[in-house]
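User: Need the bound-state model for cobalt (II) ion:
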Amino acid sequence: MASFAGKEAEDALKLKSVSVVDEDDDEEEEDEGGGAEGAEGTKKKKKKKKSKKKKKGPSGTTPPHGRMLGGFTDYYTKYGQTEPPSIAVHELSNFKSGQFPQGQIMPHGTTRVPDAAGPELTHYLTRVSEAERRELDTSPDREALYQNARRAAECHRQVRAHAQSYIKPGIKLIDMCDRLENMNRTLLKEAGLEAGPGFPTGCSINHVAAHYTPNCGDDTVLHEDDVMKVDFGSQVDGRIIDCAWTVAFNPRYDPLLQAVKEATECGIKCAGIDVQMSEIGEQIQEVMESHEVEIDGKVYPVKCCRNLNGHSIGRYEIHAGKSVPIVKNNDSSRMVEGEFYAIETFGSTGDGYVVEQGECSHYMKDFNCPHVPLTMGKAKKLLGHINKTYSTLAFCRRWLERDDGGSYAVHKFGGKQEHYMGAMKVLCDQGIVNEYPPLVDTFGRGCYTAQYEHTLILRPTCKEILSRGDDF
Ligand code: CO
Ligand code: CO
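Assistant: Bound-state model below.
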């Protein structure tokens, strides 16, 4: 999920003439993940990064990942997983010990802003000794926390590796989501709030940047020329992995995808204890805006979606209060040891500014929601269902309408909610539940947005990119 800021221009939603930049030679890069690894990260990459049969394009180069040309399903068989995957990740013999693969290890990004603001801002890495940092990093509490997050990340990697083999033009989005989410539930061995999907599967298309998933009855089909952002979550003990990539079959979008991938990698590289949010945003913007993309003979600059952000992640709290901007701003707050972050960037050929538009599918209980006595029986019942099934995790209408109401572990086949929209409106009006409607570039139809996202944790000794895989 993306964090959305600012409603300054709801009325900005209007059609504009296509902004055309003088044609220039476009520097298309076929190299998958060319800029994808920070220099420091490359050497320290985890061992499991060798894909035996990555398909090569006709020219011998690796086709960009966004085209989903297959060859990804071998990711999990090396761990004893079946094809298609059917075994819960923590029950695979390789992981029975409770030790899951570590993510990519990188050094913390360094802040360029001196610690002149006072002793309380004296940088962590100089204030705390290496021995103290190592002690904290290896404490039993931390170890348990890391393993929960890594288990969720391993599920995410296996689920998406399989999804990348069946996402093709012509697929119905609702079928795609059901298939992906069912596998997510299986590999996590869904156990209500203890383990399960972290939030609904976003599959926002083209000018829709985020927070779209089909509601029941939505027959939308994925087309050859679509640009789709697949954003789904896996959680174990409330530790949510929030990770997304972009699917595009038409090679004309490769430069757009490459721009956003590089921008996200830049954000990942910059992140670190004591680093200011504004520093990260500025550098992401510089990378994103150094790209352009040619579509149907017109050259478009790639713009950052300036009111979409990365975000801190808390336990059962997908947006924990801190935003990681993707453009230059004046946010002087800093990243802190122990925090989880979703680093995500969005690039657009349109306005680079999103507003809420269209039918809502995503909902989430307010994390700090006040206790409100409810008079309407149906609202009370729905809230009871949400509390038991999702607590403060995000959910969608499709899940409420499953036979298990969103959790087989909690409700078996007796969880289905019916005729609940009136009750949902009451919960939203009372501020107990918040709506997250689709976020759409104000340019409207005809523009394209792309996204890449990873979840990382700022450990005392290093930064761990939990969701890193051999795909992106
Ligand atoms: Co996110
Ligand atoms: Co996301």
